[in-house]
Design a protein that fits this description.
Elements lengths: L6 E3 L5 H15 L11 H15 L5 E5 L4 H12 L3 E6 L2 H4 L4 H9 L3 E5 L2 E6 L16 H10 L8 E4 L2 E7 L33 E6 L5 H10 L13 H13 L4 E5 L13 H7 L1 E6 L2 E6 L8 E4 L7 H10 L4 E4 L11 H9 L5 E5 L2 E4 L9 E5 L4 H7 L7 E5 L11 H8 L3
Parallel strand pairs: 1-9, 2-3, 12-13, 16-17
Antiparallel strand pairs: 3-5, 4-5, 6-7, 7-8, 9-11, 10-11, 13-15, 14-15
Helix pairs in contact: 1-2, 1-7, 2-3, 3-6, 6-7, 8-10, 10-12
């Protein structure tokens, strides 16, 4: 029996993880972690912004241009509000239309000086007293993460944050097992009030925290990174939202065998949840010291699927295109906010895929893509809509013919070498 050797697939570093690590490390140490040439553009945007912040003069207005990076927009909004100096936070026209007001309203209620102007946001950094975190995260969990990131350096100032359904209890180093239901006497029994006194039990200052359970993977990611002193152990982890393309491509490619380098099952990224579906669809996953091997082991007649992507919206486009290509019926829910991303993703998805099959719009939150009956053409023409996720999703059609995508450069936002790797790896 011939031994199959996997095609090695280089994935980008997780921009969600690296961006949070860059900010945490800078706020703790006033130093920058290294960034590399093949990193996603979003990582480079945050790195360059931190360099400007680090060398900025307090007397003049310093421009922080975050281009189209949503994470930078929200996280740096919070950071600049607490960093002494005068700032102009700006970006692309599309970015400035994306959700930010719940975060702005929260920060201004805490004393931040933020004003909307034509070019973006004018900010004067001041010391903020954050004793709670009651913030609406319906549009994006990044609002909560932004507050958590700037609060890391102020842990000794307060011991409880609250936002939405999330409760974070700050506790003294030395108490290893504390939950919100734990009855313990600490800080003269003041559990929820401002407190700068040492703990009566261990004599330690507030240094760390635990949380009640929360289902949002990106808030969990922020929590975990804030609790570690060894951020370097997370910096090399590959991006699961980029890896999803390769899982879909493996499913569409008989005998596919990939090694997805530096990918791990047990990491901080919510998109890893997709593995359980792909295992049922006919892929075999094996983790080793260099990454995760993916093998197409059988062709499965996939029954109708219902998948909720509310907490993992970045995988929605690839799943939708996969269902058309394979084909199988797919109902996607949790789509309410994907029109708030780099493009009007839901509207575009329905419009483009309706060329190949019937799509029902069940609600503003859900669509059903019916199992395709007609043959696919042998040539495809798409626009990227300046959205990196569409470049990856449309590329799945390469399994059925030639694909022309306009404005593919936007894929560098998350996966700079994607097109090169696809062209070499899928022909191997």
């Amino acid at each position: 029996m011939a031994i199959s050797f996997p095609v090695k697939i280089a994935l980008p570093r997780s921009k969600s993880i690296v961006i949070r690590c860059l900010l945490i490390h800078y706020l703790r140490n006033r130093k920058l972690l290294p960034v590399f040439e093949d990193d996603p553009n979003d990582i480079k945007i945050v790195y360059k912004a931190l360099k400007v912040i680090d060398s900025a003069a307090e007397t003049s207005v310093n421009v922080i241009d975050v281009k189209d990076c949503g994470a930078a927009y929200r996280f740096l909004m919070a950071l600049l509000a607490t960093t002494k100096g005068k700032w102009l936070l700006t970006g692309t026209h599309r970015l400035l239309q994306r959700p930010i007001l719940p975060l702005v309203n929260f920060l201004t209620a805490k004393g931040a000086k933020i004003e909307k102007i034509e070019q973006g946001w004018q900010i004067e950094g001041v010391d903020l007293q954050i004793d709670n975190c009651d913030i609406d995260t319906q549009e994006t969990s990044q609002f909560a993460s932004a507050v958590m990131l700037i609060s890391d350096s102020k842990i000794q100032k307060f011991n409880k944050l609250e936002w939405g359904s999330i409760n974070t209890l700050f506790y003294h180093k030395g108490h290893k097992e504390i939950t919100m239901s734990t009855n313990f006497k600490c800080c003269k029994s003041k559990l929820c009030e401002l407190c700068e006194n040492p703990c009566e039990l261990c004599g330690k200052e507030f240094l760390s925290f635990v949380t009640t359970p929360n289902e949002n993977p990106y808030i969990k990611m922020t929590q975990t990174l804030l609790q570690t002193n060894n951020l370097t152990s997370f910096l090399a982890l590959a991006d699961w939202s980029a890896a999803v393309f390769w899982l879909a491509n493996a499913l569409l490619t008989p005998n596919a065998h990939y090694l997805l380098e530096n990918l791990r099952f047990d990491d901080l990224q919510g998109d890893a949840v997709i593995v359980k579906w792909f295992e049922k669809f006919g892929l075999l996953f094996t983790e080793n010291e260099t990454g995760i091997e993916v093998k197409h082991i059988e062709n499965v007649d996939i029954p109708s699927q219902i998948i909720d992507v509310k907490e993992t919206p970045d995988i929605a486009l690839v799943l939708a295109v996969l269902s058309v290509c394979y084909p199988f019926e797919l109902t996607l829910s949790g789509l309410r906010n994907i029109n708030l991303k780099e493009s009007n993703r839901l509207d575009i998805l329905v419009n483009e895929l309706s060329r190949f099959t019937v799509i029902d719009i069940n609600s503003e939150d859900s669509i059903t893509i019916h199992k395709r009956k007609a043959e696919l053409p042998n040539a495809f023409h798409f626009d990227s809509y300046n959205d990196h996720r569409f470049v990856m999703a449309w590329s799945l059609f390469k399994n059925y013919g030639t694909v022309e995508i306009k404005n593919t450069d936007c894929v560098k936002k998350s996966y700079p070498n994607f097109l090169i790797i696809v062209s070499t790896s899928t022909s191997s």
